Amino acid sequence: MSPLGKGESVGKYVARSLDIIDKSGIDYRLNPMGTVLEGEWDEVFAVVRKCYERMKKDCNRISCSIKIDYRKGHAGRLVTKVASIEKTLKRPVKQ
Fold first, then answer.
1. Backbone angles phi, psi at 94, to 5 degrees
2. Dihedral of alpha carbons 3, 43, 37, 15, sign
3. Which of 49, 61, 71, 73 could staple 4 via S-S, CB 3.0–4.6 A?
4. CA-CA distance, 51 to 3, in Å (whole number)?
């Protein structure tokens, strides 16, 4: 989620969202091109909504891309998916 029309650097807006995510207690990973959230549907979308509500206070246009990967009975995939690749490669990878 990022604002449009706020110039080339939107880090201060992204930081506000990340603050909301971090304080929520939901598991997440920040990367240079986005943030991955992991949790139950309602829990994750409550956090997304808070980020959106905060951003719309001073942003007239917001771009948001959401990709959902549901797998019944599995949790902790932020760690296990990377571990699986590292096991296959027999070495750690950059994160």
1. -70, 145
2. positive
3. 61
4. 11
The pair of structure tokens assigned to 10 is 């939107």
State how far the alpha carbon of 14 is from the alpha carbons of 40, 45, 87, 88, 91, in Å.
Answer: 23, 17, 33, 34, 32
Q: What is the pLDDT of residues 51-76, one digit of tens each?
A: 999 999 999 999 999 999 888 888 88
Q: How far is CA 3 from the centre of its chain?
A: 15
Token couple for 55: 């951003």
- Name the percent of the chain lying above pLDDT 90: 78
- The CA–CA distances, whole Å, from 69 to 13, 14, 73 equal 26, 23, 12
Structure token digits, residue 12: 């201060």
The model's pTM is 0.86
